[in-house]
Amino acid sequence: MPTTLAGLALLAPAGLLVAALLPLNSTSLRPTRRLSLTRLATVVSFVLAVLAMALAGIRGATTSPLIGLAGIGLSIRLDAISCSMFLLVAFVGVIVVQYSRNYMDGDPRQGEFMSGLCLTLAAVMLLVLAGNLTQLVAAWLATSLSLHRLLVFYPERRQARLAARKKFIVARVGDACLIAACATIVVAFGSTDIATILSHAHAMGAGAAPAALQVAALLIGIAAMLKSAQFPSHGWLPEVMDTPTPVSALLHAGIINAGGFLMIRFADVMLLSAPSLHFVAVIGGFTALFGGVVMLTQTSVKGSLAWSTVAQMGFMTLQCGLGAFAIALLHLIAHSLYKAHAFLSSGSVVEVSTVPTHSKPRVLPVLISLVLAFGLYAGIGWAFGILARDHAAVLTLGAILVLGISMLMVPAMHGVISTPLFGRMLLAAAGATTAYFVLEGAAIRLTASALPSIPAPDATGLLIMGLAVLSFAAVTLLQSLAPRWIHRPAWRIARVHLANGLYVNAWFNRLLGTQQRDDRAASSTPAA
Q1: Which of 40, 56, 119, 264 is 20–30 Å from 475 (CA)?
Q2: How many CA atoms lie within 13 A of 64 on its CB side?
Q3: With contact defined as beta carbons under 8 Å apart, do 136 and 182 qualify?
Q4: Would you list the domain boundaries of the chain?
Q5: What does the longest C-alpha to C-alpha distance in the chain come to?
Q6: At what angle do helices 419-446 and 363-383 cross, to 10 degrees?
Q7: 38-85 tens-digit pLDDT
Q8: Residue 520: burial class (beta carbons within 10 Å; 0-12, 13-18, 19+)
Q9: How far is the first Cα of the chain from the last one, in angstroms, to the nearest whole number?
Q10: Is 247 helix (H, G, I), strand (E, B) or coil?
Q11: What is the Cα–Cα distance from 270 to 263, expressed in whole angstroms?
């Protein structure tokens, strides 16, 4: 049965590879037939993902026999993590490929574009289904390189080339960290099989982990953060806006999640090093705050969506740093579905997001909204019986989410919405809070066999949690009260600096040597 399951799953990337490698100049395939084969490959991969998910849920986690020698080769790992990601990638692939058929219609290079999409999707599937380290590293590299081809699909777009070059450099540093981490893990455990490695790491425990494995955990965290555009290497993600819209959707809804998947897949190894988790949590939390504030100052729809991805990836990284890997997986899937829809429908966002400007917000209603939101959270959390120290990470993440829910009630507290509707809004906030506890409980139960339980925090972990809640509360207040200061010169100046990301990206450009190329190219362009 394990071999049958693995064979079914392996057919999905194999079919996409066949569609990707079809000769573009073949006279036996008309363009319409080529597009139909591409679409068929994605639909079949989705059906296989659903089937693999169902069978793995019945039979449990399995790893196929290795096709190769000396731990180097191809093997498929099917468990709650890989099947969830497999299904997500297959679903996003169906949507993006179908959208691309119309988006690229009439383009003479449509066949090449569709081929690149299929190749990238196949690489991502092989990554999330990897049962051994060699396959994981190879698929990690293939995903990055195939995406790079799509990012520079229109080479005449100068900004896309500059952003892709920056991402290429950052990705290579992340690749080096991942390869070093995997080599260290192989030496420590004597195996490339991921299931064997995770089993030994789980049995070892943090107190017995040698220094080499703690370094490996740190390297995995760094590789993941570089892949997911964490501060200060985030600048390439908001800049990759001159690529075709399907590529943006695939990047923000799928490939950007590779970093989170890496930490979730190696959760047992990450837990061997508390300092590494603390480092990941601090960087992720700061990135979430930074990206969220900058997002509020963006004037373009795609720019705002890109900074939203930076913030969301930061929050997902924070979740991993707190040891809440199951909740991070849930967040990763939910964000992917939302962001794919947001990018593919970005052309109509302006119409539905334009709202009238109301009176200036007051401090007291904002504070009352926060108190009400936390009251709902505490009451519902008590009803679910998780108000305990062992669940500090869950409470912390829930408190941050409720800060966002409180924003729903701010307009009602200002009298913008009629009084009868306030009750409905209160019910909506209670429903969203309840949904959080239900979904996080379901995610933890469904991944119990694949992921370790949330660890009890140490003193440093509790301090990080407290700082995270206070920081997000401050940003929420800033977002609520910013309209009061919109006409003040100081706020206008601050808004300009925030809109430019506090110029961190410019510093990073100089560090990578891309700023000089950018400046020279700009100086050679005639003034308008």
Answers
A1: 264
A2: 23
A3: yes
A4: 1-131, 149-344, 359-514
A5: 71
A6: 40
A7: 888 889 899 988 988 887 777 777 888 888 888 788 888 988 899 999
A8: exposed
A9: 67
A10: helix
A11: 7
